[in-house]
Design brief:
single chain; alpha/beta; Rossmann fold; 7-stranded mixed β-sheet; two-stranded antiparallel ribbon
Length: 216
């Protein structure tokens, strides 16, 4: 039986709208792109891993960033030569900030508002789907988090083009074992991206978990 996380304002749209409204102001005033939610290095680790995958065509592969926030993950991929890039977030203010940053850097990245607990057939299908903290935020929703996680995963499954498409997820709330268990009906683990570990009480653990899945 899955444990549930305690509900938090981090799982509400209102929190993120307020946060990104503030960050838009900071960006316009100071050029500050804003914070990257938990462990910026883990985002770069996923980018580095994708760049090393020789079977991914940077020009042809369609990449979708779920809960894109300020869009810096896709900016990183654009700087590595990826061209088919889309980001979605349920916060219109996050999308506005990401669009401003992409435009000011002369990058052709598509950003859209989307609630991933609802079907997103209009987005199409993708070769790489990325999630850093969005599944976490869904899990922190004060109302019906288990149901919303199931709806979210059903959406992700449909967004993957083929069984060889990749779903890369980084979490600070769920361990690799918990993710594999929760995703088991729809996804199979393909790869674990190493993250820094710590040792406490004779046990080794990680602050964050990064796992790549493929759909069954």
């Amino acid at each position: 039986m899955e444990n549930e996380l305690n509900g938090s304002e981090l799982g509400t749209k209102e929190y993120w709208e307020s946060s990104y409204t503030r960050e838009i102001g900071n960006y316009k005033s100071h050029g500050d792109v804003g914070e990257i939610w938990f462990d910026e290095d883990s985002q770069q680790r996923v980018i580095d891993w994708l760049v090393k995958q020789q079977d991914i065509d940077k020009q042809a592969a369609r990449v979708l960033d779920l809960g894109c926030g300020n869009g810096m993950f896709l900016v990183g991929l654009a700087n590595e030569g990826y061209t088919q890039l889309t980001g979605v977030d349920y916060s219109p203010k996050a999308v506005e900030l990401a669009q401003n940053i992409a435009r000011d850097n002369s990058l052709d990245i598509s950003y859209k508002v989307a609630d991933l607990t609802q079907p997103q057939d209009a987005l199409g299908a993708f070769d790489v789907v990325h999630d850093k903290g969005t599944y976490d935020a869904v899990s922190l929703c004060p109302e019906n988090p288990k149901e919303k996680r199931a709806l979210y995963l059903a959406t992700v499954e449909k967004l993957l083009r083929t069984s060889d498409s990749l779903f890369a997820i980084t979490s600070c709330n769920w361990t690799e074992e918990e993710l594999v268990l929760s995703f088991g009906e729809k996804f199979v683990k393909h790869h674990t991206i190493p993250t820094p570990t710590f040792k406490f009480g004779g046990k080794v653990g990680s602050v964050v978990t990064s796992v790549v899945f493929k759909k069954r």
